[in-house]
Amino acid sequence: MRLNRDVYVGIFLLLICAVFINATFEIKAPLFGQMSSALWPRIILVSLTLLSILFLIRSLRLEKPEWEQKGSLKNWFRYYKNPIYCFGLFFLFLASLPYLGMLLAGVTFVFLMLSMLGGWAPKKLLLHASVAILFVGMMWSIFTFVLGVILPQGEIFLYM
Question: In this structure, are 45 and 81 located in the same domain?
Answer without folding.
Answer: no
